[in-house]
Each structure stands twice: as structure tokens, then as C-alpha cells.
């Protein structure tokens, strides 16, 4: 019943919708037919101003008839619109050709309103029409440039490159005055002219430089590059670079001067040094975003010829290194300056400042292969500096004379018979060490900066690890020289210790003369080294550790040579050993007004080594009867399973060969015992009674040591 009631309403609704559609379509058809007629008439009369608005409307209306193209009349109207568009395109191109002829005739004085309106029409037509107009106009506008700066012209060479850029500046001003309003603003014609000029200039410069490559000198090349990059910077200030991304020009993928981190302090003095904050190195690197889209648009042509610049830097750096060598020979080593710590050689700062200058300059020229070539040059002269200036000037060690007597040790204060480095030589070694450390740290920073400068594809080819290793070797050699010098100075004292008649010592006194001699040498050398390495504390710690690792085993070896030893002699040696132990523990801050706690790593080495020496003497002092107790005491105190060491202990005690043989057999038998057995043996040795005389001597020695402390 509802359907019956609404049937008529529904029919009326359909009729209304169809009628509305029909009326709208007929109106569009009327507009289309009238528009096509008007379009054809206006095209013939070149009424481009009216055509621009009308054409866009006709095209929009025609879109409504896409589904009616099967109707012959509609299809005919569509074909007439296309024909009108083609005719307009050809006609506008002809008008521009007539106004701006490609060849021969002189260009008219100014634009016309007809051409300005024609550009508006071109915006609606096929984009190829617009591109053709732009291409022909720019070509005609730059035709004079190609004639003036032909390859055979004097002004075409690099020394007059300024004239090229002055010419285009005048042309752009002239264009703005005459044709600025003729082309739509969104066409960016001024920028397009400048960009095309850049491409033409790059091609022409590349051609003439290939022809006259032998005439290119580094000063001329740098002059041309500087003027070119200045011009590119001027373009960046004047234009946005929007035409570089529309297919006309490819955007150059090069790093820009403004992204160069070395330019952060460009306003500073040339003596500024490369500094990198740790926080910066920890942050992830952001991709480089060029601020100047025109960078390299012309200057790219100079890249194949940058070998001239690289060769020049190679020569300059070679001369710089030679000057450093000559200056060092003329001026001699740096004067000792204990107050300021080890002075870094000024030449290394000069070298890295020059490196920085080269890097900034080269990164402005190219971020490609030339940067890799420059890196290779840097590597070459870093190595030369390390060997010629640093290693080459390290003092040479001389072998010391033979052993000395106790009496001669006492004379060392007046005229030393040991070949030692002078104060100046010690300061020079410390200065070279500090310089090598500076070079090591700065070379690492240099590598990071170089990686930031080059193209991403070349980053893996920059590696200065070898050069950093070279400076590490210089540091290690410097420390070794300091250790050898102090070690050699102590050798005669240790030799004298081993030649003393320890079995004839009758009473325990103050520390022996050889201990006084060792302490004297330590007090002479260590404060100088510490003060000159004040800026590199970690390497002073390394020196202390290496000296301890060298001196303590040598002391123990000489200790084994002290044979035979009486009980009193062993007590005196134990006292001497304890004195040396205290001096070594205090070695890092000896002679210093500021008392610092020695590094734990150093203290551990000294305690372990000197405690072993004390244990050796305690074993020597212990009675060898009963043998089992003696052997177990040895194993407990020294924990050394070597029969050679045990043999040396027996020699120090002065036992006969027959006694030693039985002792060695017993020692070998006791070694395989399981840990529990060893513990029982240890407890046995602890509980075993010792003679009263031995107990009395040990207590007396302990009191003497406590009194000295």
C-alpha cells in the first residue's frame, strides 16, 4: 500500500533529477560551443589576455563531457579544443621567435603586453610549450656571452674569471629592468638564466682548462675557485634554488662550506687548534644538509685539476717539516720549565694549524677524491713528523761502565761514573712524550673531521690508525728511555750489593750505602719527570709501573747473587729491602709538596714484587734443620715450584752440595702433595718449634723495622 501511495512521488523525483542533469549538461554544451567559437576567434586576433582565462574554462567544461565522447558532435568540439591549443602553442612560439630571434638580427628594445599575456596562456597549455619558451629565451639571452668568452679570447682564461661573473650580474639587472614583468613570477626566469649561465660556464671552463692544463698554477687555481665559490654564495643569497629540482638542473650532491665544523671558529686566529668536545663525538652524526644549493654548480669543473693544489700542499708540508728540523737544530731542545709541566713542541701546533687550514680549503673545493688525496698527504707528513722531529731528537742511550765498589757508590754525588741523561735531556724526552700524546689525540680528531668532510661513499677510505700507532710507539719509546736511564743509574748500586761479603756482616745497622745510592737516583730523576709530565699523568703512572716492573725483578736477581749470607747479613738485607719497598711505594709523589696516593695498579705491583724479595730473605733466615720444616716453609712463603729458585735459596744459605742434593730430593717429594696435604704441611711448619736464637733474632729485626718506620 505504501509503494502504491509513493509510486507517483518516486517517479516525480526521478524526473526532476533527470531534468536537472539535462539542463546542466545543455548549459555546459552551450558554454562549450560558445567558448570554442570564441577561443578560435581570439586566437586569430592574438587576444592572449582573454584567451588565458577562456581556455582554462573551456578545458574545465570539457571534462564534464568525457562520458559523452561517443556522441559525434561532442567529439568534434573536443577535437576543435585540441586543435586550438596546438595552434595557440605554435603561434605563441612563433611570436617569441619573432620578438627574440635566435640568429642574426638585433633583439627588440623591450617586451610587449602581447607576449606577457602569451606567457599566461602557456601556463595552461602543454608544459612543453612553456619549457620551449624558457629554453629559447635563455639561449638567446646568453648568446652574447658565448661570443665574448670564446675559448680563444683573452678574457676566457682563469685570471680574468671575474669578468664572467661581472657580465652575468649586469645581464640579470638588465633582464629585471626590461623583462621582469613579462614572464610570470612563478617561472623564476632570473634564477633560470643564472643557473643556465653556471652550466655553460662550467662546461666552457672545463674545456679551456683541459686545453691549457700545463698553464694552471696553484695560485691561479685557488684564485679562480675563490671567485667562483663567492659567486655561488651570492647566488644562494639571491635565489632559493627552486629551479634546481624541476629536472632542468640536477642538484649537486656535495658538502657545503657552512656544514664544515672547522668553520665554527673561522673568526678566530689562525693559531687556533683542533678541539672536539667529547659530547659532540658521542652524539650520532646527522646527515649533512646543504644550505647552499648552488655550491659546486660551477666550481665542480675545478675538481679534476685539484691535483695541482694537492701537489702544492705536498711540497709546502715537506718544506715545513724541513724547517721544523732546521729550527730544532738551531734553537736546540726546549729549556727546562718545571713550573708549567712538559712543554709541547710548538712545531706540532703549527703543523696541525696548517692541516686545519688545508682541510677547510679543500673541503670548500671538493668533498670527493681530492679529500682522499689530501688525507694521504696528511698521513705521509704525520709519519715524517713522528720520526724526524720526535723520534729523531730523542737522546741516545750510552752503555754504562762496569760494576762499582761500595766506596765508589759514595762518590756518585760528586762525579757520577754512570752515564746518565742530563736535566735538559730528561726535559727533552718528557717534552717529546707530551708532544706525541698531543699529536695522538689531535690525529684522532683529525680523522673524525676528515670523515665528516668527505662524501659518505668515501668515509671508509679514511683511516689514520697507522699514524696514531706511530705516535704511540714514540710515547712508548720515550717512557722506555726514562725507565732505562733510571734503571741504569741504579745498576752499579745493585752490582755493589751483590759483591758485598754478606757472610761477614757482624751487626744490623742503618740502611746500606747501595740503598742510599738507589734512593738518591730516584730522588734526582723522578721529581723532574713527574713535573715535566704534569699534563699527562697517565704516562707518568706508566713510567712508574714500567720502572717497578724492571727494577724489582733485577733487584731480586741481584739478591740471589748475594751468597753466602749469614743470619745477620740476611737481617740487614731484609732491612734494606723494606727501605726500598717504602721508597718505591712513595715513588709517584717522592720529593713533591703535594702528597698524592699512589695509583692502586702501581702499588699492587710494588707490594707483590718486594714482598717476594722479603719472603726470599725470610726463607734464607729460617734454619734448614729439620729439612722437612724448611722445605714446607719455603713452599708456604714463596709458593714457587721451580727447583732453580730453590737451588738459589740453598746457595744463598751456603749449604754444601751434598746437603743441597738431599734438600732438592725432599723438595721434589713434597711438591706433588695434594692441597690438603700442603695445608697440613703448612700447619706443621707453623706449629713446629724454632730455636730460641732464631726467635730472638726475628723479634729484634721486627723492632728495628718498627723503630725506623
TrEMBL record:
GO terms for cellular component: cytosol; endosome membrane; GARP complex; recycling endosome. Belongs to the VPS53 family. It is a peripheral membrane protein. Residues 571-655 form the Vps53 C-terminal domain. Pfam families: VPS53_C, Vps53_N. The lineage of its organism: Eukaryota, Metazoa, Chordata, Craniata, Vertebrata. Residues 1-328 form the Vps53 N-terminal domain. GO terms for biological process: lysosomal transport; protein transport; retrograde transport, endosome to Golgi. This is Vacuolar protein sorting-associated protein 53 homolog. Residues 682-693 have a biased composition (Polar residues). Its main location: membrane. Residues 674-697 are annotated as: Disordered. Signal peptide: none annotated. InterPro entries: Vps53 (IPR039766), Vps53_C (IPR031745), Vps53_C_sf (IPR038260), Vps53_N (IPR007234). The gene is VPS53. PANTHER family: VACUOLAR PROTEIN SORTING-ASSOCIATED PROTEIN 53 HOMOLOG, VACUOLAR SORTING PROTEIN 53. Keywords: Coiled coil, Endosome, Golgi apparatus, Membrane, Protein transport, Transport. It is found in: Endosome membrane; Golgi apparatus, trans-Golgi network membrane; Recycling endosome.
Amino acid at each position: 500500500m505504501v509503494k502504491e501511495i509513493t509510486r507517483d512521488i518516486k517517479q516525480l523525483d526521478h524526473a526532476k533529477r533527470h531534468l536537472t542533469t539535462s539542463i546542466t549538461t545543455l548549459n555546459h554544451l552551450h558554454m562549450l560551443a560558445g567558448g570554442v567559437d570564441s577561443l578560435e576567434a581570439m586566437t586569430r586576433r592574438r587576444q592572449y589576455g582573454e584567451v588565458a582565462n577562456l581556455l582554462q574554462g573551456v578545458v574545465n567544461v570539457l571534462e564534464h563531457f568525457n562520458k559523452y565522447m561517443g556522441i559525434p558532435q561532442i567529439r568534434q568540439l573536443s577535437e576543435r579544443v585540441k586543435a586550438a591549443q596546438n595552434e595557440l602553442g605554435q603561434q605563441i612560439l612563433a611570436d617569441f621567435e619573432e620578438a627574440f630571434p635566435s640568429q642574426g638580427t638585433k633583439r627588440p628594445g623591450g617586451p610587449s603586453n602581447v607576449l606577457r599575456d602569451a606567457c599566461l596562456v602557456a601556463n595552461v597549455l602543454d608544459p612543453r610549450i612553456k619549457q620551449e619558451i624558457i629554453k629559447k629565451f635563455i639561449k638567446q639571452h646568453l648568446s652574447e656571452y658565448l661570443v665574448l668568452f670564446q675559448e680563444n679570447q683573452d678574457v676566457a682564461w682563469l685570471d680574468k674569471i671575474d669578468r664572467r661573473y661581472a657580465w652575468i650580474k649586469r645581464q640579470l639587472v638588465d633582464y629585471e629592468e626590461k623583462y621582469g614583468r613579462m614572464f610570470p613570477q612563478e617561472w623564476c626566469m632570473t634564477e633560470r638564466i643564472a643557473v643556465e649561465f653556471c652550466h655553460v660556464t662550467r662546461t666552457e671552463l672545463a674545456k679551456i682548462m683541459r686545453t691549457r692544463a700545463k698553464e694552471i698554477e696553484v695560485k691561479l687555481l685557488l684564485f679562480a675557485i675563490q671567485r667562483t665559490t663567492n659567486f655561488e654564495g651570492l647566488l644562494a643569497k639571491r635565489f632559493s634554488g627552486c629551479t634546481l629540482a624541476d629536472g632542468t638542473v640536477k642538484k649537486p650532491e656535495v658538502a657545503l662550506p657552512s656544514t664544515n665544523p672547522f668553520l665554527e671558529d673561522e673568526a678566530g686566529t689562525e693559531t687556533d687548534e683542533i678541539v672536539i668536545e667529547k659530547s659532540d663525538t658521542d652524539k650520532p652524526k646527522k646527515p649533512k644538509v646543504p644550505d647552499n644549493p648552488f655550491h659546486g654548480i660551477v666550481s665542480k669543473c675545478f675538481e679534476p685539476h685539484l691535483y695541482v693544489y694537492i701537489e702544492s700542499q705536498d711540497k709546502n708540508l715537506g718544506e715545513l717539516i724541513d724547517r721544523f728540523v732546521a729550527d730544532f737544530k738551531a734553537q736546540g731542545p726546549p729549556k727546562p720549565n718545571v713550573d708549567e709541566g712538559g712543554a709541547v713542541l710548538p712545531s706540532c701546533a703549527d703543523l696541525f694549524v696548517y692541516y686545519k687550514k688545508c682541510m677547510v680549503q679543500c673541503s670548500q673545493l671538493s668533498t670527493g677524491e681530492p679529500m682522499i688525496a689530501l688525507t694521504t698527504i696528511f698521513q705521509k707528513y704525520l709519519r715524517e713528523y713522528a720520526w724526524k722531529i720526535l723520534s729523531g731528537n730523542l737522546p741516545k742511550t750510552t752503555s754504562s761502565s762496569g760494576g762499582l765498589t761500595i766506596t765508589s757508590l759514595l762518590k756518585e754525588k760528586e762525579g757520577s761514573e754512570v752515564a746518565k741523561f742530563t736535566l735538559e735531556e730528561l726535559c727533552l724526552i718528557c717534552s717529546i712524550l707530551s708532544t706525541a700524546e698531543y699529536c695522538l689525540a689531535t690525529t684522532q680528531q683529525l680523522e673524525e673531521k676528515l670523515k665528516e668532510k668527505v662524501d659518505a661513499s668515501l668515509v671508509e677510505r679514511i683511516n689514520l690508525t697507522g699514524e696514531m700507532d706511530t705516535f704511540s710507539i714514540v710515547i712508548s719509546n720515550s717512557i722506555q728511555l726514562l725507565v732505562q736511564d733510571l734503571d741504569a743509574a741504579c745498576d752499579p748500586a745493585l752490582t755493589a750489593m751483590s759483591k758485598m761479603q754478606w757472610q761477614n756482616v757482624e751487626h744490623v745497622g742503618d740502611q746500606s750505602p747501595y740503598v742510599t745510592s738507589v734512593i738518591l737516583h730516584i730522588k734526582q730523576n723522578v721529581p723532574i719527570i713527574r713535573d715535566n709530565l704534569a699534563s699527562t699523568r697517565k704516562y707518568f703512572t706508566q713510567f712508574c709501573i714500567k720502572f717497578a716492573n724492571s727494577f724489582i725483578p733485577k733487584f731480586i736477581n741481584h739478591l740471589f747473587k748475594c751468597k753466602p749470607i749469614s743470619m745477620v747479613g740476611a737481617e740487614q738485607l731484609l732491612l734494606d729491602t723494606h727501605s726500598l719497598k717504602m721508597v718505591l711505594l712513595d715513588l709517584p709523589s717522592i720529593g713533591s709538596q703535594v702528597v698524592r696516593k699512589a695509583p692502586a695498579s702501581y702499588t699492587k705491583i710494588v707490594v707483590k714484587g718486594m714482598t717476594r724479595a722479603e719472603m726470599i730473605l725470610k726463607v734464607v733466615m729460617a734454619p734448614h734443620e729439620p729439612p722437612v720444616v724448611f722445605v714446607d716453609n719455603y713452599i708456604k712463603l714463596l709458593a714457587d715450584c721451580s727447583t732453580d729458585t730453590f737451588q738459589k735459596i740453598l746457595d744463598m744459605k751456603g749449604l754444601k752440595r751434598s746437603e743441597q742434593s738431599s734438600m732438592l730430593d725432599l723438595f721434589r717429594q713434597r711438591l706433588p702433595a695434594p692441597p690438603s696435604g700442603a695445608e697440613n704441611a703448612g700447619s706443621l711448619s707453623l706449629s713446629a718449634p724454632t730455636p730460641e736464637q732464631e726467635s730472638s733474632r726475628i723479634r729484634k729485626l721486627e723492632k728495628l723495622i718498627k723503630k725506623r718506620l
